[in-house]
Design goal:
This protein has one domain. Helix 1 runs antiparallel to helix 2. It is mostly helical and 73 residues long. The longest helix has 20 residues. It has 3 helices and no strands.
Length: 73
């Protein structure tokens, strides 16, 4: 499955360091990808989950910045 580097790092951590189950890692993967796709759609768009852009078309830098932001964007 295609993900963003920041998501991969987190998933590797919860699997290797925290020993989360494979099912939990799969669930987190799906949720984080959907959230990244939502962030990639842009703040001004009203969009349904079915209409979100594919993960491979996302601007990884912008998504990472949004995920790490300490203030709302």
């Amino acid at each position: 499955m295609l993900t963003l580097p920041i998501i991969e790092t987190f998933l590797d951590y919860i699997e290797a360091e925290r020993n989360f189950s494979a099912h939990t890692v799969r669930s987190y993967t799906a949720d984080l990808i959907q959230f990244a796709r939502y962030l990639g759609a842009g703040p001004d768009e009203e969009i349904s989950a079915e209409d979100l852009p594919p993960i491979e078309e996302l601007d990884a830098g912008r998504i990472e910045q949004a995920l790490l932001a300490t203030e709302p964007m």
